[in-house]
Amino acid sequence: MKQGMKALAALLFTTSAAQAGGIDRTGQRFDGFFQPGNYVELSFGMVSPSVSGTDLPLGPFPGGGSTGNVASDYYAMSLMVKTDLNDRLSLAVVMDSPFGADIAYGPGSVNLGGTSATVNTSAITGLMRYKFDGGFSVYGGIRVQKANANVDLRGLAYGSLNGYSVKLDDETATGYLVGVAYEKPEIALRAMLTYNSAVDGTFTATETYTTAGGAVIPLVTSETNVSSPQSINLDVQTGVAEGTLVFGQIRWANWSQFILSPTYFASKTGGASLTNFEDTYTYTLGVGHKFTDQWSGAASVTFEPSGNPLVSPLAPTNGSIGFTLAGIYTQGNMKITTGINYTQLGDAQAETADAARADFTGNSAVGFGVKIGYSF
Q1: Using an 8 Å Cβ cutoff, are 105 and 121 in contact?
Q2: Longest Cα pair distance anywhere in the chain, in angstroms?
Q3: List of residues 6+ apart from 298 with CB closer than 8 A
Q4: How far is Cα 186 from Cα 190, in angstroms, rounded to an integer?
Q5: Most exposed of 110, 153, 189, 290 (fewest Cβ within 10 Å)?
Q6: Mean pLDDT across 226-248
Q7: Nearest residue to 350 via CA among 304, 305, 306, 314
Q8: Cβ–Cβ < 8 Å for 17, 49
Q9: Model confidence over 135-181: pLDDT tens digits?
């Protein structure tokens, strides 16, 4: 059982779908940190979402205009290097891009056409783990995160704010994570509880207004506070038969704390936020099996319950259910994992001023990922 599970532990890998949990792109996982010995892991993923909607009636306009596919394909890479200093103490460095968005509404939408948003993040996390007797361990680390963003509000649904833009310059801020784990290797049991703190940044926000003629009018340049969400991950895996593993995760992310309210925008909206996200719970359940000494496979289902159907135009989906198939090839000290994911994205209505402006139905995303792990 123990030998049969070593390869399967690496299959806890999901190619995340667009807009899952606010603008979550990785789930902030680091399963490779629990690989024995010295270990390096490189992951690459690509997600291709199809997220389109149609205008709802607004004033004299009857609706029906197409938003086009508002969500662009995106790519993500991560790198982990881990080493054991001794039998009890391990260190690791992780580089990834935990959050992101790339939204753009097409000109066919009268209500929201031209609205766009980009969010870019990159993070470096230093980790330390200490093992106690009896299978327990504690771990923690510091995360340094860099972020920037651009938001353009366009379309009749924004009223007097049609033409408003804000640019958030690069800002680097720090957060932390702490966790506790229990392992019983003879049955491939591992349970991890991880808390990721919010990362609070103070950004220079440049707000402008673009007239119908294309002239850009400066509004306000000021400092604005933005926090990426705190979150909790509970990961569990255990062997259930020779060569067979079941695994699961529950993730809570505090997206309601993700507030973007620059000075001019706040003054015109009574302190409203450009974003309108709810806290999310994401559940994953899967099974893996070792077929031969070289080949293993896994399948999993990920579910995110729907919430308020009125959502931010910057993330126009509401809940999801996703299906992932993965395979791993082991040769000596190297493991190559590939996975494909299909996610159905929940129906939603993009809103401004608490009124529905566009219907989004029947949307989905397809993802593909490759992970290479090497023990040395």
Answers
A1: no
A2: 72
A3: 8, 11, 12, 245, 247, 286, 287, 288, 289, 324, 325, 326, 327, 328
A4: 11
A5: 189
A6: 94
A7: 314
A8: yes
A9: 999 999 999 999 999 999 999 999 999 999 999 999 999 999 999 99
Tokens, residue 167: 């640019």
3-state helix, strand, coil in the chain (%, to 5): 10, 60, 30
Q: Which helix (H) or strand (E) holds 90?
A: strand 89-96
Centroid of chain to Cα 30: 14
CATH superfamily of 2-375: Outer membrane protein transport protein (OMPP1/FadL/TodX) (2.40.160.60)
> In the beta sheet, which residues pair with residue 74?
47
pLDDT at 20: 55
Q: Which of 88, 65, 172, 74 minimizes the C-alpha distance to 135?
A: 88
d(CA 147, CA 204): 12
Tell me, what DSSP letter sits at residue 154? -
d(CA 323, CA 134): 36
The 10s digit of each residue's pLDDT in 70-125 is 999 998 889 999 999 999 999 999 999 999 999 999 999 999 999 999 999 999 99
Give the model confidence (pLDDT) of 37-61 as tens digits: 999 999 998 999 999 999 999 999 9
Q: Are 275 and 265 in contact (CB under 8 A)?
A: no
Report yes or no: 11 and 328 within 8 Å, Cβ to Cβ.
yes
| Sequence-distant (≥ 6) Cβ neighbours of residue 228 within 8 angstroms | 98, 99, 121, 145, 147, 175, 198, 199, 201, 258
